[in-house]
Amino acid sequence: MVAQPAPAPAQPATTTPEPVGTREQPTRAIASSTPVRRVFPSISWPRRYSSLVLTTDLAAILVATATAFMLSLPSADPARPGANVVVGLVLAVLWLASLAAEKSRDRRIVGIGVEEYGRVWRATWHVFAAVALAAYVAEVDLPREYVAIAIPLGTALLLVGRYGARTYLKRLRRRGRALSRMVLIGSRSGVAELAREIAARPLAGYVVVGACVPDGDPLEGEWIDDVPVLGDVLDVPHTVTRVRADAVAVVGADHINASVVRDLGYRLESTGTDLIVAPGLVDVAGPRMVLSPAEGLSLVHVDAPQYAGVRYVFKSIIDWVGALVVVLLLSLPMLAIAAAIRLTSDGPALYRQERVGRDGKTFRMIKFRSMRVGADAERAVLEGENEGNGVLFKLKDDPRVTPLGRVLRRYSLDELPQLFNVLKGEMSLVGPRPPLPSEVALYDGWAPRRMLVKPGLTGLWQISGRSDLSWDEGLRKDLYYVENWTIAGDLLILLRTAKAVFAHEGAY
């Protein structure tokens, strides 16, 4: 929908003066009073952030190789005192070179998603394979410490360093910094939809400063939602220069065909501006999209989600082994929690509730009891105070919750017994939120797709606000996970779950 509020008065602080140059002028003039959304300058942030990541990478590799060298001293050959030093230096240089070759610091993938971590892992694996092969061919006795210590330790430190840098980048973006200014090109409906999606994902690193649409006239002060129209599609190169945009995103429009996009790419080459073609697949992640060039025709293939096969078996193995390890490590604390529940309130320590699992099969989910006995029967009395959304029942100050139960819920300790559901194969460590049968009965649209995979002990809903999420937000998180799950994504969610639990946001 196109909204046309009165044009805001021009403000020097929010407009960017047009740089002087020899650029070919567009066929139509652009009013200098067209409002441009204010955002902190982003010209230098990719360079600074890349330097930060390079520093953390270098520190991680040096620590790993130095540790391996120190541990290799007792078994080092006395006749070649400097051999291990040379091996360590060569490994460090090759490691840094491999990270660069994999473009692991590419500004288009750092700070978001799992692709950055995947490239770090691939770079490390390539180094390990190359060094091992070279040592075998040259018949060089490679110190075992560099394989057994440097590679695993270095990988862990690299990932920790990237996570720390990513956390810092997200903090900047929450403050409106380290953002890339983007101009949208396309139909008014396409611009409005993409602008809403970008605004809903501020940590993606983009802020829309304007749009160019077919037959767009900035003199009329047109706005698309809260995005100012800066000109026509033909005005894009001049507009990009005027507002100092870092990226141009093309969305669907009848007037924008392949030749227009190609011409636009040619004209943007000298500006250093990224040209992005938005395919309109907002909830489809990169791993499912494959670009297939066929005789000059670029086709984007979208793979179907995978819910079986070797990858899913591997996920199940990780679930079982991970749950077993955690149960063994936390067995004593779990016994202590159970004892505390029995001592502080009447009733059993465990609470069992019917939930719906994969393919609609029901199972008995186990939790530590956090409410008084008979709480389920009291829900009807509290329906009028429901603070939930859609089909969810939520009550922030639920009177049925015991004092100890509030503590358990605050830190998600009440969910630890679900590890036994994971061991039984009824749940996964990571997956959609396990729904109640009453919730499933109200499902419509694509909501039943949540049950194509096992429900999870944690998931995107857990690390994105838990009970603070509306029904629609939680459903979208679950569907996104179901459509795009990966092993690497699961590991990342598990790491972020620890942070979400200690922050206890949205837990009540």
UniProtKB/TrEMBL annotation:
Membrane topology: Multi-pass membrane protein
Keywords: Membrane, Transferase, Transmembrane, Transmembrane helix
Location in or out of the cell: Membrane
Domain Bacterial sugar transferase: 315-502
Coiled-coil residue windows: none
Chain residue ranges for the region called Disordered: 1-28
InterPro entries for this protein: Bact_transf (IPR003362), EPS_sugar_tfrase (IPR017475)
Chief location bin: membrane
One GO term describing the cellular component: membrane
Record field: transmembrane: 52-71, 83-102, 123-140, 146-165, 320-341
UniProt feature, compositional bias: Pro residues: 1-10
GO MF entry, a single one: phosphotransferase activity, for other substituted phosphate groups
Family: Belongs to the bacterial sugar transferase family.
Name of the protein described by the UniProt record: Exopolysaccharide biosynthesis polyprenyl glycosylphosphotransferase
